[in-house]
Amino acid sequence: MRLIRQGEGLVAVEPMARFTGACWAPEPSMPLAEFVGKVLTSRFVSHTPRTPHYHVGQPMPLLWVHPKCVLAEAKKLGEEEKKQRAAQEEQERAEERGYARRAAALAECTARSDPDREALARHSARLPGIQQAIAQTADMFLTRVTVGWSVGDSRYSSGIPLVNDHGNLLAVFDPLPLADGPCPDFLLDVGLPMLFPTEERRERFEEHRATGERLRSRRALERDA
Questions:
Q1: How far is 5 from 204, CA to CA, in rounded Å?
Q2: How does pLDDT run across 1-35, given as a tens digit for each residue?
Q3: Is the pLDDT of residue 180 over 80?
Q4: d(C-alpha 60, C-alpha 195), whole Å
Q5: pLDDT confidence of residue 93
Q6: What is the rounded distance in angstroms from the CA atom of residue 185 to the CA atom of residue 190?
Q7: CA triplet 46, 50, 55: central angle to 5 degrees?
Q8: CB of 13 within 8 A of CB of 64?
Q9: Disulfide: which of 162, 164, 196, 221 matches 201 by Cβ 3.0-4.6 Å?
């Protein structure tokens, strides 16, 4: 504590501070007796700042602050950490989406080099509900949509890929969840619409999607531990 003499008494000048929501700002100076009274009644506690602080003198490793300010700083830092973690997770998901979609485009390109795959695609285009799904996808993306020649690829979990003329995956029709298992990682990563002929099939798939997301979150926590 830096003290100065004023008249017959001593005045506490710094480092008393208050948290403004963004940084620590200096509290007004006060008579030494008032400062000591606040310390003895826990209205001032010593605190190591974790955010910037501004004083007349040099930055100090300890400040005298109100306990509520300590909680306010901790809350702000917690919110910032949460935002940073969410941003990092979204960046990772974006990278996973990009990788999954590039892998799907490569699979489609490879399949189109095999004439026998066209017959399978045409057969799949006659399945119940597929034309409605194609029309729905075309409305969503405002482009022509067809059944991909990569139909039958295991990444679609027995679903049917719906692609544009360039072979880019736009949606998957009626993927089946793995028997008593989680949703395949590709369907979690790709981040595209999953379309279903009935609400019952959608609900069953969503249950497995939720299981897959929980397992992935658990693996991520174990990896970071």
A1: 77
A2: 889 999 889 999 888 999 999 889 889 999 999 99
A3: no
A4: 60
A5: 87
A6: 9
A7: 70
A8: no
A9: 196
Q: Which residue has the tokens 């000048």?
A: 13
Q: Residue 38 — pLDDT band, cuts 50, 70, 90?
A: very high
What does the DSSP assignment read for the chain?
Answer: -EEEEETTEEEEEESBEEE-SSSEEEPPPEEHHHHHHHHHTTSSEEE--SS-B--SSS--S-EEE-HHHHHHHHHHHHHHHHHHHHHHHHHHHHHHHHHHHHHHHHHHHHHTT-THHHHHHHHHTTSTTHHHHHHHHHHHHTS--EE-TTTT-GGGTT-EEEE-TT--EEEEESPPPPTTSPPPHHHHHH---EE-SSHHHHHHHHHHHHHHHHHHHHHHHHHH-
Q: Distance (Å, rounded) from C-alpha 164 to C-alpha 104?
A: 12
**Which amino acid is it at 131?**
Q
Structural tokens at position 164: 């544009």
> 144-170: per-residue pLDDT in tens?
999 999 999 988 988 999 999 999 999
Specify the residue for token string 């089946």. Answer: 176
> How many other CB atoms sit within 10 Å of the CB of residue 35?
22
Ramachandran quadrant class, 152 (left: phi over 0; alpha: psi -120 to 50; beta: rest):
left
Cis peptide before 15 (omega within 30 of 0): yes
| pTM (two decimals) | 0.67
HSE-up of 55 (CA within 13 Å, CB side)? 24
Among residues 58, 56, 5, 67, the alpha carbon closest in space to that of 31 is found at 5
Query: 164-178: per-residue pLDDT in tens?
Result: 999 999 999 999 876
Question: CA 171, CA 97: separation in Å to the nearest integer?
Answer: 13
